[in-house]
């Protein structure tokens, strides 16, 4: 009896210390303890060897042990089943997938792409230039004099390490690079980001976008410039839209002009957006100054050309009904997700 009790105590310890591992060891455990030739069965057959006066006590210990062994089996099994359940759910191929969230294009790029595609149809290709530019390409070659106010620190961001470098103040730098590099004729549009040292508000920012156009060949005239821009405006804003040219001044063009389109909001009636004028100024343009051609080693007696430069933010804001320029650069996805390529 003493011996049997000791054995049972040892088995109990063994059961308690068993970790609930995989299904293989559960089956091994069942056979060892609860099987037809298992430990519990064997202990019950020992009953006949126990003296009659101790049978009751032994019976109780044995029953308790049997229950312990069975409880262990049940809880182990339950655990295995619930993990198996979870594993199956994780790879249930019949469940619908998570929808893919597609990105949307930035409204600036949407607008730029439309402008580019219109000029593409007229035979203009895209050229890009650096945003960190030297004085020559941003100012000097464009006939912008040493004392021109645009060079003022107030307007231009200079690079501290090298005072010859600036963050380009316009995309006109790319004209110069193209003229220095390209074979003639040149027919390009140059989109990109530009920088000016301006206070940030709902209407202005210290960086924004422009697109520059340049056409150089023999016999290019102001009439070509007008017709090109007229085509662009009609494609962009509709056939009925009116335009007008006003004389203006830029150091890099002669003659120079600014082009207005009829206000898109009030159609010429006069409203707050067009400051009651009925017109919106959309770009600067002109015939490339002979000095600029000369600076780029192009013979001004043989070649002429026109150029124009247009801001992107303002017309894009008008088109999409955006009332704060800062939204473009804040990366708020609630704003960005509203624009699809269809708009
Ligand atoms: N660079 C001018 C600006 O930033 C825009 C411009 C005007 C570009 C006339 C041109 C041009 O090419 O011919 O305000």
Question: What can you tell me about this protein's structure?
Answer:
The chain has 343 residues and is an alpha+beta fold. The chain is built from eleven helices and nine strands. It has helices at residues 2-17, 23-34, 39-46, 52-90, 107-121, 135-138, 173-181, 222-237, 290-295, 313-320, 333-336, and strands spanning 125-126, 132-134, 165-167, 186-195, 207-217, 243-250, 253-262, 279-288, 304-311. A hairpin with a 2-residue loop joins strand 6 and strand 7 (253-262). 24% of the residues are buried. The structure holds 3,4-dihydroxyphenylalanine (DAH). 3,4-dihydroxyphenylalanine binds next to strand 8 and strand 9.
* Low-confidence sequence ranges: none
Biggest sheet details: 7 strands, mixed
CATH H-tier superfamily of the largest domain:
Bira Bifunctional Protein, Domain 2
Question: Could you give the order of the helices and strands?
Answer: HHHHHEEHEHEEHEEEHEHH
Q: Characterize the overall form.
A: rod-shaped
What is the helical fraction, as a range of percent?
25-40%
Summed up, the domain count is 2
Q: Work out the number of β strands.
A: 9
Ligands bound to this protein structure: 3,4-dihydroxyphenylalanine
Radius of gyration of CA atoms, rounded to a whole number? 41 Å
Tell me the number of helical segments per DSSP (H or I, 4 or more residues long). 11
User: What is the assembly state of the chains in this entry?
Assistant: single chain
Average predicted local confidence, pLDDT: 92
The CATH architecture classification of the largest domain is 2-Layer Sandwich
Estimate what percentage of residues fall within beta strands. Answer: 15-25%
